[in-house]
Specification:
Blueprint: H1 33-66, H2 73-98, H3 111-114, H4 116-130, H5 134-144, H6 146-155, H7 157-177, H8 180-197, H9 200-212, H10 216-234, H11 236-246, H12 253-276, H13 281-299, H14 301-316, H15 318-344, H16 352-366, H17 368-403, H18 406-446
Amino acid sequence: MTVPTPPVKPAAAVSPAGPAPDATLPAALRITPDDEIRRVRLVQMKRVATIMLVVVAAVFVVARLFEARYPWLGYLRAFAEAAMVGGIADWFAVTALFRHPLGIPIPHTAIVPSRKDRIGTALGNFVQRNFLTRDVVAAKLAAMKLGERGAQWLARPENSRRLARAAAHGLSGAVNMMRDEDVQELVDRGIVSRLRRMQAAPLAAKTFELLTADGRHQALLDDALRLAARFLDENEAMIRARIKQESPWWVPGAVENRLGDKIVSGVESTLVAVAADPEHPLRKRYDEAVEKVVANLRENPDTIARAEQIKLEVLSHPGVAEFSREVWGDVKSRLAEYSEKLTGDTEAKPDQLERWLAGLGQKVLEDPVLADKVNGWMVELAAYLAEQAREEVATLIATTVGSWDADATSRKIELQIGRDLQFIRINGTLVGGLVGLLLYVAGKALE
């Protein structure tokens, strides 16, 4: 994206006199103590360049007056003449950057104040295109290894404690500022209302699919078989007593015992057989039943309607709202207790959160593969944020510079680079003089 160029404002001549009152300027344009030092050094360098120009002008006058009597002064006169031209030209060029030379509104002068908005736009586009690109940001952050640095910082106990306490205080303060009624309304509008709009059957089908992926549901069946075997073992006496209780009075006790043995041993053998055989028919019927449930949840209108009815009945039950209130109250009380504990005991041993944070940092440092992953995550996150914000940053730079006062902006920039620009005047005077001298010598040689 290229930031559009704001309309150019008429340039006012920037007076070299004192700066505008700082109270009316943004912080970036206010004169700081460092700027005052730069101003003094700028004035000194301007005097050096001006004195050099005056000196070569005086040399030119003297050499011109006595050249007829002393012909060798022609070389000095040619040097001084060209030096004046070079010095004056460079004075004009440097001055025209920041103000109208001699206050005369010559076209294409006072460039900084008259082109301030365009400069801001160009600067924003330059930053956007050359600094806030994914490649540049990713390369720089990859070299910095932010993940490892963060892990080193987090592994120090004092830092993990500071972060844990800051998080606890921040969360506790935020929670205490929230009213219970607002939280309940948020739960009702943000969670319960969304659940009401969300179809339960497809979600349940997706859940079943996740549970059955890669045979996970068979593992659940194995757990169920183990629980059933344990229940049978622990309640065998109760099962036998129940058989005896339900048997007719005329059945002999030996038959009842035999019947109990058959039932218990039959169930045990079935459980063992199913657990030991991955291809057992019962497992296949279990697979078919799960597939049928998923298919009904996705396609059967009656099953879908029934699931929706159950969902709405659950969400409408008063216990849902009561449960959310209890959870919120428990969170508030626990955070308050945790924050008070941290505040009251500065020498307490590291708590669970502090140990977890420190352990997380240590684990990243000890595992090079994990450290590389964390570094990669940090780089990806920062590169993504930079890529998303690059246009906004360019616009921010352009609009910020565009809102600045033209005179103050020009003065601020001159304080930053003006002293170095005075060397252009000095060099222009010397180089111009040398060029003039060489041309004079060449002309003499051709006579």
